[in-house]
Amino acid sequence: MKLKYIYTYIIFLATLSCQTRNEALETALQLAGENRSELEKVLDHYSLNPADSLKLQAAEFLIANMPGHYTLQGDLINAYRAKIDADTIGCYLHHKLLDISFSEINWLRKNSYQEEDVKHIKADFLIHHIDLSFEKLHQYSWLKDIPFDIFLEYILPYRFANERLDLWRDSLDIAPQALEDLFFLDNTKYIMPKIINDIPLSKPITKINPQILSELHLNNILRECTHLAIAKNLTYRIASVPSCIEFIPRYANRNGFHQWCKIVFSESKNTADMEVSYQTAKVYQKTYSRNRVIIPSKGEYIPDFFLNPFYKDVSDQYLYTTDAVIPVREGLPVSLRHAYLCVFNNLTWQPVDITNCQKSSAKFKNIGKNILYLVTYYQEKKMRPMHFPFILNLKGEIKYLVPDTCTRQKITIKRKYPFNDLLHAFNKYLQHLVIEASNDPNFLTPDTIISQFDTSPVTYAQGYNKTDKRFRYWRVSNTTTHPVYMAELSFLDKAGKPLKGKTSPSDSLILDNDPLTNITLDPMKKIIIDFDTSVHAAKIVCLPRSDGNGIYPGNDYELFYHDLNGWQSLGRQIAPDYYLEYHDVPRGALLWLHNHTTGIEERIFTHENKEIRFW
Q1: Closest by CA position to 114, among listed 77, 74, 75
Q2: Fewer beta carbons under 10 A from the terminal one: N or C of the chain?
Q3: Cβ atoms within 10 Å, residue 331
Q4: Are the C-beta atoms of residues 57 and 178 closer than 8 Å to each other?
């Protein structure tokens, strides 16, 4: 019975997004139940005086779009709120910011329930907020002639996410003197984005007690893009500068997502960029007003992201987009209604767009180019491929990656993640290292074993001992004027087995078998490795400072290729060296190398003309 109610409610809210303003307003009043009288008080209040016609429109806008907006409540999230509220050091602004951020933290959301605005909001609260918002509209010079629809969407809303409702406009305002100074500027409307961060508020700004943040494990929250976007958005709204939060749900060529705050200008578009340089398939905007969403059929699973009516697709405002039509292959369920456009992110396929399935195809609109995609569908909540993965190139052309299992090839893999110029520079510096050896700890008459390292393997440097001499002490010197960043130094015997030595505690990180730890070898500095007895090192390998995404001896790897049934294994290997070789890889396939030992940064790739390209 409970599941039936939830399904009916989802359908009801989805249908609401397709209604006209008057229809949506009446639906909201119906959803309010016993709270309907409070909402009608607001409408009646602004219906008495013709001078309040704009305020009446504002009230209708807020109420018509109110269903689906809510405050998160629950023992855990309220305990966090109480701890922050009890802080006597931090100011209201920072308390408010954290309250908004709380509602974006997944582990707090999972332990909370929703208190719907439409059922709980009071008339006095809404009237007070609307009056104060209009007061700013007539008071601030930069709002002169602002289009009313921008005012409604980007200045008027009383909430930011799913925080507690409060009269924040009473508590946060521009300092009177600062406001007075702004009126002397003829171009205030245009320079507001540049000066807003310097405008003092009417109340002192003090940060929350760091001890409380530490106790609640919230220190990292303050540095995340989500909280930074919330902070900017709140700051702009305090000054009645139209703003919103936009976001990339999943990057297309790396792990993670991104959010940022954008000022909404009345005169021009694209005045703010995404603040990122990573490939993007889709960009969305968080809105107060409702947007059209997919209506699920009975029993159909659709991820929550695509049922959220407060996400608006703004991809074409940032990207050179195109449409892609993907055939529906034979043999799929007849009842297939929706298809999902996915990118590879966090070691799995992540949906970033949804569309209705036609009989023979699925069309996705306004998607990013030069990206590798997979179109999927859900069957009993399990994602399944609808077609082969494909590359959408810059010309808007589609290339399907169909594995040719009858034609196999040998490939050599040196990394599981894209290489970059910084990593290349770190490796190039290693060629200036010199290795000397001696049986005298003072190196009075040392032998030079390696005068220059070979960095052609790209991801590491190596050198060979051309003598058969054995030495106890081995010395590493930096002969350049530039610091050399070393992660690991391995001495191998003729059989390729590592020799165990020791060095000073300050330099021991180069012998800890961890490519993510490193030391800085300053110019003219030397490091001595003591093996306790004379040894013969036939080969010496040095790893530069890196991201830990190379191939490392002893790690357990597995290579996969993708077909119409998903990922298929080509076998696991314990890496014997700093590279892997696979001999039976289907041509034309999409590939993925997974490290079972450690790490979370892995990218899918293709192999063509003996070259690997990561996507």
Answers
A1: 74
A2: N
A3: 6
A4: no
Arithmetic mean of pLDDT, 583-587: 97
User: Tens digit of pLDDT for each residue in 366-411?
Assistant: 999 999 999 999 998 999 999 999 999 999 999 999 999 999 999 9
Three-state SS annotation for 469-519: CCEEEEEEEECCCCCEEEEEEEEECCCCCECCCECCHHHHHHHCCCCCCCE
Quote the CA–CA distance of 306 and 356 in Å, as a whole number: 12
| Residues 537-565 as b or e (16 or more Cβ within 10 Å = b) | bbebbbbbbbbbbbbbbebebebbbbbee
| Cα–Cα nearest to 386, from 428, 421, 351 | 351
CB atoms within 10 A of CB 297: 12
Q: What phi and psi values does residue 77 have, to the nearest 5 degrees?
A: -65, -35
- pTM value > 0.85: yes
Token duo for residue 122: 């009071």
**Can you read off the two tokens belonging to residue 267?**
């005169």
Q: What's the half-sphere exposure (Cβ side, CA atoms, 13 Å) at 338?
A: 22
CA angle 418, 424, 429 (to 5 degrees): 155
Residue 47 has pLDDT above 80, yes or no: yes
Closest by CA position to 515, among listed 578, 445, 432: 578
- What is the β-pairing status of strands 539-544 and 484-492? antiparallel
Instruction: Tell me the CA distances in angstroms from 195 to 185, 190, 200, 230, 438, one per residue in order.
Output: 12, 10, 10, 18, 65
Helix 123-139 crosses helix 53-64 at what angle (to 10 degrees)? 130
> What is the CATH architecture assignment of 408-417+551-614?
Sandwich (2.60)
What are the pLDDT digits (tens) for 219-272?
888 889 999 999 999 989 988 989 999 999 999 999 999 999 998 988 777 665
| 332 in Cβ contact with 377 (< 8 Å) | yes
Length of the chain, please?
Answer: 615
Strand ranges across the sheet with 484-492: 461-464, 539-544, 484-492, 519-521
Residue 306 has pLDDT above 90, yes or no: yes
Instruction: State the pLDDT confidence band at 299, using cuts at 50, 70 and 90.
Output: confident
Q: What are phi and psi of 167, to 5 degrees?
A: -85, 70
Residues 271-284 pLDDT 10s: 655 666 689 999 99
Amino acid, res. 438: S
Three-state SS at 356: strand
Phi/psi for 467 (5° steps) reads: -110, 170
What value does the mean pLDDT take over residues 122-134? Answer: 98
- Residue 201 in tokens: 């508020």
In the chain, domain spans: 1-17+242-400, 18-221, 408-417+551-614, 421-544
